[in-house]
Amino acid sequence: MVTEKVMDLVNQGLMLPLMEEFYTIQGEGYHKGTAAYFIRVGGCDVGCHWCDVKESWNAETHPPTDIDSIVANAAQYSNTIVVTGGEPLTWDMGPLTEGLKAKNLQTHIETSGAYPLTGIWDWICLSPKKNKLPVGDVYDKTDELKVIVYNRHDFIFAEEQAEKVNNNCVLYLQPEWSVREKMIPLIVDYVMKNPKWKISLQTHKYLNIP
Ligand code: SF4
């Protein structure tokens, strides 16, 4: 049972509900193919019906973990640290990223932007979701916009979101895994007609790695 004191530490970002942490290859987006240490934080109420990490949603099922131990583990493996979820911005990312930066590690985040941006980031990958749109100034700070394409309407949503990001942001369309065979030909066609976009694939799933 989580005590009030522990919940206080979680609410301050000094502890985080840690679902898993692992060293692997970043499979998606701009940094695909790069070795990276992943920190998957529990907790997400965005509710994407196709979510492939639904077990992350309930933060209470993931043990509150001291950020110092998360940082110490990460520093043993890689210079590139990817914080993902769940929705990591459910929590204050300030203390964790300060700890990672104190070790001179590169901090990357994968977020829907559904909550205000906290933390110190070298790379922000924004993957906006229709049912809980990004808030605050995250569009100005985003390095990579990654829109998941589940159906044809997602192309319209992608263009709406691309209007909001800064001019330096790299634009990606990524097929949702369960419908990839149907959507990949449409995405290929779309990118050839609209070359400001690039295709992102979940290459880690093809490589059969986490
Ligand atoms: S934002 Fe991410 S973790 Fe949350 S429901 Fe959507 S896909 Fe799943």
From TrEMBL:
Protein encoded by which gene: queE
GO molecular function, one term: 4 iron, 4 sulfur cluster binding
EC top class named in words: lyase
Entry's transmembrane regions: none
One annotated GO biological process: tRNA queuosine(34) biosynthetic process
Assembly notes: Homodimer.
Domain of life: Bacteria
EC numbers, comma separated: 4.3.99.3
Organism annotation: Flagellimonas allohymeniacidonis
SUPFAM superfamilies reported in the protein's UniProt record: Radical SAM enzymes
Family: Belongs to the radical SAM superfamily. 7-carboxy-7-deazaguanine synthase family.
Cofactor(s) demanded: S-adenosyl-L-methionine; [4Fe-4S] cluster; Mg(2+)
Radical SAM core domain sequence ranges: 31-210
Known catalytic reactions: 6-carboxy-5,6,7,8-tetrahydropterin + H(+) = 7-carboxy-7-carbaguanine + NH4(+)
Known pathway: Purine metabolism; 7-cyano-7-deazaguanine biosynthesis
Cited HAMAP family: QueE
Stretches of the chain forming a coiled coil according to its record: none
Name of the molecule in the record: 7-carboxy-7-deazaguanine synthase
Alphabetically ordered keywords of this record: 4Fe-4S, Iron, Iron-sulfur, Lyase, Magnesium, Metal-binding, Queuosine biosynthesis, S-adenosyl-L-methionine
